[in-house]
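Progress note, sequence design subtask.
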């Protein structure tokens, strides 16, 4: 307990770590991605060196095909309307049919509001789009969120430079 006391270091749990990484929109492969998604879908297209010959880059042909495919899922950030509770992970985005799902959502202590990331149809990925969220346990009740810029917290990274 005495280690780090002079720096005001405190214990924290895994859930706090999960919320912190979500606030910065740091993805976990398999949590905010799935077998159908690629670098472009989750906002990591900058990692793909487009100058390399396709033959030297694993997956480059598939990425080129996906680049302009508007039917793909896209990772978006969202904030809940009226600061309602965060939806459960895996809740569905709907409007007559399933249009995506919640990858991660939590109540953010830094922002004092419920935020999350979802994989949604590309046409729902524009900033300001209203998302209708269905949770199986809640019957016909729906909750709503709006697509926002990511990351939610400290977008310029000034806190990291303190």
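Output:
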């Amino acid at each position: 307990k005495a280690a780090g006391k002079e720096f005001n270091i405190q214990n924290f749990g895994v859930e706090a770590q999960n919320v912190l990484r979500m606030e910065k929109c740091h993805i976990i492969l398999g949590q905010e991605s799935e077998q159908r998604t690629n670098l472009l879908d989750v906002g990591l297209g900058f990692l793909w060196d487009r100058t390399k010959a396709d033959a030297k880059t694993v997956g480059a042909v598939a990425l080129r095909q996906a680049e302009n495919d508007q039917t793909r899922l896209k990772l978006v950030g969202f904030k809940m309307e009226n600061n309602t509770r965060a939806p459960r992970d895996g809740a569905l985005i709907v409007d007559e049919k399933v249009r995506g799902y919640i990858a991660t959502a939590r109540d953010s202590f830094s922002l004092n509001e419920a935020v999350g990331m979802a994989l949604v149809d590309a046409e729902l990925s524009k900033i300001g789009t209203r998302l209708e969220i269905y949770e199986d346990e809640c019957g016909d009740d729906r909750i709503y969120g709006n697509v926002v810029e990511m990351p939610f917290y400290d977008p310029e990274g000034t806190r990291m430079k303190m």
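The first helix runs from residue 14 to 23. Work on this subtask will continue into the next period as scheduled.
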